[in-house]
Design a protein that fits this description.
about 100 residues
Length: about 100
């Protein structure tokens, strides 16, 4: 499937808006359910790599740190990168020929 002008423009707008939002926020606090989900996925990846011994896995999953609300702080460069990429996509879509 090949993207046309309208799809490039819409993707650029979405990425631009996401970049602006990343520049406006300082950090995000996850809910307990989301924190638990992230902790389980990260724990699963560490177990697969062998960082945590298999014997320790049930003890770590039951720890209160896994249910604590987590805070995510995105790096400042990520917002600028998304704004730049979205702007380039929008300008690229305007340079393309109109769909038939």
């Amino acid at each position: 499937m090949e993207f046309n002008r309208n799809q490039y423009f819409m993707l650029g707008l979405i990425i631009l808006a996401l970049g602006i939002q990343f520049r406006m926020i300082e950090s995000v606090i996850l809910t307990e359910e989301a924190s638990k989900f992230v902790a389980q996925k990260v724990l699963k990846q560490k177990v697969e790599k062998g960082d945590i011994p298999q014997v320790m896995v049930p003890a770590v999953e039951a720890s209160p740190a896994a249910t604590k609300k987590q805070m995510i702080t995105p790096p400042k460069w990520m917002g600028w990168a998304l704004i730049s990429f979205g702007s380039v996509l929008i300008l690229h879509s305007l340079a393309m020929k109109k769909p038939d």
